[in-house]
Amino acid sequence: MDNIREELEQYRAQIDDVDRELLACLAARFRLSETIGLLKRSADVHVVQQDRATEVKKRYETLGTSQGLRPDFILELFHLIHQESCRVQDRLR
Ligand SMILES: O=C(O)C(=O)C[C@]1(C(=O)O)C=C[C@@H](O)C=C1
C-alpha cells in the first residue's frame, strides 16, 4: 500500500509539472495573440480571421489525432482557445 501511495505521488508530481507547462504555453500563446491584436488594431483589421481560424483548427485535428486525442476533445479545445484569443484581442479595441 505504501509503495502504491508513493508511486501515485510520483505520477501526480509529473501531472503537476505537465500542467505547469500547459499553462505557461497557453499564456505564451495569448501574449502572441495580444501582439497580433495590436497589429490588427493599427491596420484596422477584424479580430476574427475565418480562413486562418479554419487553418488552425485543421492543424489541431491533425496534430491532436496523431497524439491519440479524441476528435471531440480537440474541437472543444480549439474553440475554447480561439474564443479566448479573440477576447484578448477584443479587449484592445
Ligand atoms: O492569426 C490571427 O489573425 C490571430 O489573431 C490568431 C488567431 C488564433 O488564436 O489562432 C485568433 C483569431 C483569428 O480568428 C485567427 C487566429
Automatic annotation (TrEMBL):
Give the lineage. Answer: Bacteria, Bacillati, Bacillota, Bacilli, Bacillales
Q: What SMART domains does the database record attribute to this sequence?
A: CM_2 (SM00830)
Taxonomic source organism: Alicyclobacillus ferrooxydans
Matching Pfam families, A to Z? Answer: CM_2
What is the name attached to this protein's record? Chorismate mutase domain-containing protein
User: Which domain of life does this protein belong to?
Assistant: Bacteria
Residue ranges annotated for the Chorismate mutase domain, each copy included: 2-93
Which InterPro entries is this protein grouped with?
Chorismate_II_sf, Chorismate_mutase-related, CM_dom_sf, CM_II_prokaryot
Q: Which residues form a coiled coil?
A: none
Q: Which GO terms describe its biological process?
A: chorismate metabolic process; salicylic acid biosynthetic process
One example GO MF annotation: chorismate mutase activity
The record's section on PANTHER family has: CHORISMATE MUTASE (PTHR38041:SF1)
Q: Which UniProt keywords apply?
A: Isomerase
